[in-house]
Amino acid sequence: MLKKENPKKKSKLVNILFAGFITGTLDGLAAMILNYKVNPGVIFKFIASGAFGPAAFAGGAEIIVAGVIFHYVIAFVFSAVFFLLYPFFYNGLRNKYFVAVIYGIAAWLIMNLGVVPLSKITMKPGYHIPVSTIVIGMLTLIICVGLPVVFIADRETQKSK
């Protein structure tokens, strides 16, 4: 006998996938716009270098594709986690815009203080991220990750009430 799928679970999964696609696309576009002097392929080679190390920069289209895939996987993971945590954050903070700011800052901190240092991305010894780069990065993630996830999760939360 076939089990009927719970439409709420299906809706939640669709919304999480949608949030991941939107955040990945917006963040990727933002990276290309903010780094307009750099070939977009280099941006995705940089992402791929997290797994393949400096050799990624010598790679071709396959490395760029790998970088795009890694980028979207990361976007989907962050979106799923933030989406699922949204009700808890909203109940505590009572302001979806503040939640979006928290999400964007958290995403930046996790990526730059956790994921990147643990990856094979190499930085010059003594390199420190300029404050302006930190602020731009956090604002980008607030706009490209925090707000879309919050709007999608809030819509889902309102529907289920």
Automatic annotation (TrEMBL):
Keyword set, alphabetical order: Membrane, Transmembrane, Transmembrane helix
Membrane-spanning intervals of the chain: 12-34, 63-85, 97-115, 127-153
Top-level taxon: Bacteria
Protein known as: DUF1440 domain-containing protein
